[in-house]
Design a protein that fits this description.
This protein is an alpha+beta fold. The protein has five helices and five strands. Helix 2 crosses helix 4 and helix 3 crosses helix 4.
Length: 132
């Protein structure tokens, strides 16, 4: 399951802080804005996973500003991976070359993703989750 939520990053003294207004109390800090954002993503993954497990209602998505895409395992506990990419490719009768062309990467990259040698980037995970 993918959740989209607004977030903000600000500088506080010598470090940066990041928070998601829809999830009060869920925040992170880092030496750089990027580090704060990455830590916020991890915090949100844990926070939202706990909310889902507890049956809590999630806030409405608000896409008027910058947002993070938070990957939360679906009911099976699995996030899209290389096997999901391969299954999608096969279902659609595509070769690795054709998939590489569509995603603007090399065939070797597709091969490494499918074999689990390299993790799927977030954008590919997002697309796979969206198309089921």
């Amino acid at each position: 399951m993918l959740i989209k939520t607004l977030y903000a990053v600000g500088k506080a003294g010598n470090c940066f802080n990041a928070h998601a207004p829809d999830y009060p109390g869920c925040l992170a800090t880092g030496q750089t804005a990027r580090e704060a954002k990455e830590r916020l993503l991890l915090a949100l993954q844990a926070h939202i996973t706990a909310m889902v497990e507890d049956g809590d209602e999630l806030p409405e998505e608000d896409l008027d500003g910058g947002f993070l895409v938070v990957e939360v395992p679906d009911a099976s506990g699995q996030a899209p991976d290389g096997a999901a990419l391969r299954a999608y490719r096969k279902r659609n009768g595509m070769t690795q070359e054709a998939m590489a062309a569509r995603l603007e990467v090399t065939k070797a990259t597709i091969n490494e993703w499918e074999r689990g040698k390299r993790p799927l980037p977030g954008t590919v995970k997002f697309a796979l989750s969206a198309i089921g």
